């Protein structure tokens, strides 16, 4: 039985840093009310679209069922092509069912058409991490896309990719970005421009987005 929201303590940014740093991603979770809302939404979405991945691909990402040449949704686990992590490859959206984070933290999902290369690991290994080369490339992407444009310090930005066992949408590649107290500015709206109703969603999260920001 799920606990109530009153007994749930949101994750602080420092707690998130420790969990991600220790790769204890299984400790992350949603507020009980958000989890119930997600499970109800998931059941309805699967009934109407066949899967959550199909809904996200079609309705949230607006990607065709057959990917364009050189932009495969599911490709080999080898070297990343040059087109990976470019504007044509990714979509940046607010997480509609964010983890139970403290107020002032923005949870963003970066969806990619290309699979992120993983470490070589024995068959059946429970936890397989991102390869070192891929991690370095995502580090650079996150700094260029989020940290610098938003005027944040490096310690205000975290990212992680769930292991396969923890993913709720494993058919579409993605990783998570957490922003600690970014300014409610045009720059923040622009970062998640791929989403819809961004200003309204940020205001619902408690951000006082000024008039004139769109």
Number of helices: 6
Cα(first) to Cα(last) distance is: 41 Å
The main β sheet shows up as: 4 strands, antiparallel
Task: Please identify the structural class as seen in this structure.
Answer: alpha+beta
**Average of per-residue pLDDT values:** 88
Number of spatially distinct domains: 1
Shape: globular
Spatial strand sequence of the major β-sheet: 1-2-4-3
Rg, Cα atoms, Å: 17 Å
Low-confidence stretches: none
Helix content: 25-40%
Strand content: 5-15%
Number of E strands: 4
| Element-level helix/strand string | HHHEEHEEHH
Tell me what you see in this structure.
The protein is of the alpha+beta class and 214 residues long. The protein has one domain. Helices cover 30% and strands 12% of the residues. It has helices at residues 13-21, 32-49, 52-60, 132-147, 186-191, 198-204, and strands at 90-94, 105-112, 157-160, 173-180. The protein has a four-stranded antiparallel beta sheet with strand order 1-2-4-3, sandwiched between helices. The longest helix is centred in the first third of the chain and has 18 residues, at 32-49. The mean pLDDT is 88.
């Amino acid at each position: 039985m799920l606990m109530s929201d009153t007994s749930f303590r949101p994750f602080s940014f420092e707690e998130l840093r420790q969990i991600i740093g220790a790769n204890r991603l299984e400790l992350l979770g949603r507020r009980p009310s958000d989890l119930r809302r997600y499970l109800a939404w998931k059941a309805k979405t699967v009934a109407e679209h066949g899967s959550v991945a199909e809904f996200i691909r079609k309705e949230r990402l607006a990607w065709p069922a057959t990917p364009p040449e050189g932009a495969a949704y599911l490709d080999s686990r080898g070297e990343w092509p040059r087109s990976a992590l470019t504007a044509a490859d990714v979509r940046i959206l607010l997480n509609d069912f964010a983890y139970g984070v403290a107020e002032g933290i923005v949870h963003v999902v970066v969806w990619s058409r290309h699979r992120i290369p993983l470490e070589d690991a024995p068959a059946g290994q429970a936890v397989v991490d991102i390869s070192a080369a891929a991690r370095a490339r995502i580090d650079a992407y996150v700094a260029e896309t989020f940290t610098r444009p938003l005027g944040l310090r490096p310690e205000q930005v975290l990212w992680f990719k769930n292991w396969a066992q923890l993913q709720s949408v494993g058919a579409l590649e993605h990783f998570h970005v957490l922003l600690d107290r970014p300014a409610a500015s045009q720059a923040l709206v622009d970062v998640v421009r791929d989403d819809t109703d961004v200003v309204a969603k940020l205001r619902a999260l408690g951000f006082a987005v000024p008039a004139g920001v769109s």
